[in-house]
Structures
1.
Amino acid sequence: MADAEQLRFKRVLLKVSGEALMGENEFGIDPGTCDRIAQEIRAVTVIGGEVCLVIGGGNIFRGMSGAAAGLERGTADYMGMLATVMNALAMQGALERVGVPTRVQSAIPMATICEPFIRRRAIRHMEKGRVVIFAAGTGSPYFTTDTAAALRATEMNCDAIFKGTQVDGVYSADPKKELGAERYDKLSYMDVLSRDLRVMDASAISLARENSIPILVFSIHNPDAFAGVVGGEGIFTIITDDA
């Protein structure tokens, strides 16, 4: 791929789980892993792609786990949102180390460390070649960062949602636990919902379906995978209406 004309998708949202930032650690943030993901994002921006990003917080705190441990669900979810802000700041640092201008916008206002989420400002940042990282989910409890990703992709008029996972697509079961798990190249939104494949939660899939935004699932750990999939190459599963 040499220029933006060869990109299959011009403006994209990348959803990365918090666990992807752990590297080989059991929790927390691995700077080397952040730097590698930053290089993947940079490879898309240098050929003219516009990128925004949503990162989960499971490497630091997961709201559902906190609720199961006895915390009130709303409180636990807000704690999870704060974890995503920490991850967003870490990724901002990694991106700027490789020369990619970046802005963090939080759904929970934190004026000292990042911008509030303002839709038109975020679009303008992307038009100027900046990567925008959306933090703190939707700003409300009871919604996952998957749903936040689908919402922000819709608001930003993104051409696609890219879900960077631990495996190279969508499988019928966890391929790390079941050797016979079937891998899918294409799926419809209804396939994902009816088969309960859980690549993203039902709210996120439904929102993407309502707004006709394709979802591409790929391995965030394969070198150059993000740029390849944005160009329509490499290994991935695509979820659309007409699969």
2.
Amino acid sequence: MHRFFAPDIATTLTLPEEESRHCVRVLRLVEGDEVEVIDGAGMLYHCRVAMAHSKHCAVEILSQEECPPHWGGKITLAVAPTKNLDRIEWMTEKCTEMGIDRITPLLCRHSERKVLKTERLHKILVAAMKQSLKAQLPQLDELTPIEDFLEQIADAQRFIAYCDESLPRSERRSLAQVYNPSSDAVVMIGPEGDFDPIEVEAALKAGFVPVALGESRLRTETAGLVAVSTMHAIKEHDKKI
């Protein structure tokens, strides 16, 4: 069944213009056809098209159900956007498909990208949410200076992945070893030029634990994806025990 995103569907009973156009002009749905509508806040609505208008398609809600995230504790990924925007778009798409609660683009001292427009990223998150059959849209923050982010963190496990010649890999525990799947977690990933030592020191003072993401040196976007996939793997393993 076709799925659409309408954050205010419960009150407006109408799909947004872009979703209406896709429903009526692209998919050729007509009055009486049944569709699914998600609000991005965890609710799934089973609906019937009441008026097939290409700008404001009206629906009738037949039933509704709550669809909470299947991964339990909240996952936040704070990552410095790459110079190549395609790479960070790919990462956010895949993280959304797996399941994530919040994505915070970080502005760091060594950041290659100092400006980030989030409109396109938001559309990518919406598409990934629908494609992966989720009802929860990840929170997408604006580009945030790392100093501000460190002051905003709520109670959660805190991990930072970075390259440091002074800290041998043998002395750094892997994320899989220290992550507790029953509670919220925040993982920070630096830019292509890595975190500045001053930023690392500030993160450690804020309670962040240095972690390794494997034996290989990873690109920023790959590191973000590995971190999220590792947490999901641990959660799935924990469910089966």
